[in-house]
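Hey, I'm writing a tutorial for new members on how sequence and structure tokens pair up, and I'd like a real worked example in the thread rather than a made-up one. If someone can provide the structure for the chain below, I'll link this post from the tutorial.
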Amino acid sequence: MKFLHTSDWHVGKSLKGRPRLDEHKAVLAEIVGHARAHNVDAVVIAGDIYDTAAPTAESQKLVVNTLLTLARDGFEVIAIAGNHDHGGTFEAYRPLMSAAGINLFGQARAKDKGGVYSFNARSTGEPVNVAVIPFLSQRYAVRAAQLIAPGDNAPARNVGSYDQWVRNIVDHLHGGYDPDGVNLLTAHLTCTGGAMGGGERMAQSIFEYHVPTAIFPVDTHYVALGHLHRRQHLPAEAPVHYSGSPLAIDFGEEENAATVLLIEASPGIPAKVTDLPVTSGRRLRTVEGTVEQLRAMAESFEEDWLRVRVKQSTYAGLRDDILEVLPNALEIHIHADYAQTGSGKVSSGHVAAKSPAELFAEYCAHVGSDDARVRTMFDTINDELTAGR
């Protein structure tokens, strides 16, 4: 059987105040296109569908229409809540979405109460079992483990560690596997040793919020993870993969490859994983140079979102000059080599010995400004204020 693994859509994300809904619309359409082109049996979305727990109506409309399109095309749709999503809302809409062929999971469940979703692959007839683990906070991991498998938690009562509680949940869901079927697991979490993509919420990615890959049963055909935005494969007894985000979320992710993963799995055969590129999102780039150098390069940046580091001293109107030639510049900074240095502290004696014009000239030099217009303006204002004294 074949399925797509994707995660971390973050629909509704804006970048420095710029909305990206049109980009998301193109990216999700591209994912639907991949599902159709490869005639998959299912699409697994491993959390963080939205960027916020209270997404806008436009964001919800885009996501719902995308999921409905996948379901109408005959694909099994399995989506879990991430730490950016609102798990309670997923659960509230679960019955309605289920009626439309969309399987949402907002909270961890026992294997016989929806914690393992089973279906037969339409292409091969093979039985498929998907263990689902939405994002679990430290507090809810304890509660979920106690509710799901109260008899399995004795070792963790004294340990109390996040990874042990999650391990207990995984061990319980493992009981829902079928030795004659394809057994998958999808979760939204951080694995020890995983590389950050650049846009994750660090407090929910490190500290106690990580688990070793050893918790995943060896007979799992494939582990589809979300949460880390960088595409990566982690060493483990079972195939453990992060699909990464199909759209760079912030400038820390500008070097990440945007992909969805095509997985081919059969009972008793190791899963085959193929990276499918997603190219619809606009590229994020960090560029450097003087204003004139950037002006000369402007056409090569096309529609990319830009973080600009200006390699010259600042002057009045510099930001406007940059935006005139680079309207897609979302961040503008003076390069560290040209930024102000030192503490800027001077003695009272030094101040008393200097004229206002001399002090202002020193300040301009300190902050790296060499704009003669600013100094002329200062002199004019100073003359007006001190005239007649």
